[in-house]
Amino acid sequence: MIDNTLKILTGSKGTGLLYLVIVFVFFFFLLTRPIVRYLKTLSDGLMSIASGNLDCRVPITSQDELGVIAQNINYMAEQLQLMMQRERQIEISKMELITNVSHDLRTPLTSMIGYLNLMKNDDYQNLEEHKRYVNNTFNKTQQLKKLIDDLFEYTRLTSGAAQLSFRRVDLSGLLEQIMMEFEPIAHEHALKIEKLWEFKQVYGMVDVEKFVRTIDNLLMNALKFSFKPGEIVIMLAEEKDHIYIAVENQGEPISREQELRLFERFYKAEPSRNDYFNSQGSGLGLSIAQNIIELHGGQMGLEYREGWFKFFIKLPRLGNFQVGEWRGKTAQG
Q: Where does the Histidine kinase domain lie (predicted)?
């Protein structure tokens, strides 16, 4: 058999066949060499990404199957890079949270320890001064409780553990009730509350407890930073695609940087103010309010113009509200 094959290849016809085989092998290597080289490039890119170089991108030289593989490798690297950035941001946020909480807890605790030591050592001149120490200590405990409550609420809202119970509510009536309860506090601080909407029912799907907390936070924010005497205006309107609610007040002007950072947790636009209400603030009120509205499928923002602050809320109208899009929430009719 082998002898016959050699005779064929060494014959005249066999010589031509041998040339064809050689030419085929030559062109095969010539054509496949770029593919092999490109596969080596893809392999090197994958190894580089696997070793931690997430900035690595492989070249895309064609739109065939190998080009699709290259695109997928680059997409994988981009997603890994975004994931790592998010992880780093979460770690930074955790450290900032610990730092801010430690500072905000230490401040009232230090004052409480100071006042308690004075009373423990009978270091007061008369009963009036003793009462003042007791009142100051009580105020600091209230501040501490509010900070812990706000921190707990903020953590629940941002961790996905919050359970919201939605039901159909007349927002007009609910806002009027909130205003009536808030009016005595506003009156004590020379503030008048005005409402701007028609006497009609506006229905929305809300978690009543969380929604009331949101409006309370906005009203307390307006109370702290309004000019006195002054007024706080509450607006309600039913737009084509959403329900619009706003709380407006006039106060000290702020910078563009302060405006952009107002919804950041623990951020206080006027840390130099030393009034009682500002000292009670946790710096979490607006962040909590914004998170609650986002869990309702809405949005919250600020329109600011020359000392006028308008914190607005946009909630989905009943026809646009779909509870099924959000996990961990229930709806009641």
A: 100-319
H/E element, 105: helix 65-120
Q: Listing from the earlier edge strand, what are the strands of the sheet with 242-250?
A: 191-196, 230-238, 242-250, 308-316, 299-305
Sheet with 329-332, edge to edge strand ranges:
203-206, 164-170, 329-332
Query: Encoding tokens for residue 57?
Result: 């991108």
Q: Which residues of 64-89 are buried (b: 16+ CB within 10 A; e: fewer)?
A: eebeebbeebbeebeeeeeeeeeeee
Q: According to the model, what pLDDT value does residue 164 have? A: 87
Identify the structural domains of the chain with CATH numbers, from first to last: 2-82 (1.10.8.500), 166-332 (3.30.565.10)
In angstroms, the CA 319 to CA 307 distance is 36
Q: Which two tokens stand for residue 219?
A: 């009203």
Q: Distance of CA 202 to CAs 91, 181, 242, 279, 292, Å? A: 43, 20, 11, 36, 20
- Where is pLDDT greater, at 51 or 27? 51
By CB neighbour count within 10 A (0-12 exposed, 13-18 middle, 19+ buried), where does 211 fall?
buried
**Exposed, middle or buried, 51 (CB in 10 Å: 0-12/13-18/19+)?**
exposed
Q: Is the pLDDT of residue 134 over 80?
A: yes
pLDDT at residue 54 in the model: 84
Residue 216 CA, chain-centre distance (Å), reads 20
Q: Flag the least confident range among 63-67, 114-118, 173-177.
A: 63-67
Q: Can you tell me whether residue 303 is helix, strand or coil?
A: strand
Structure tokens that stand for 98 in this block? 């610990």
Q: What is the model's pLDDT at position 325?
A: 40
pLDDT given for residue 327 in this prediction: 36
**98 confidence band (pLDDT: 50, 70, 90):** confident
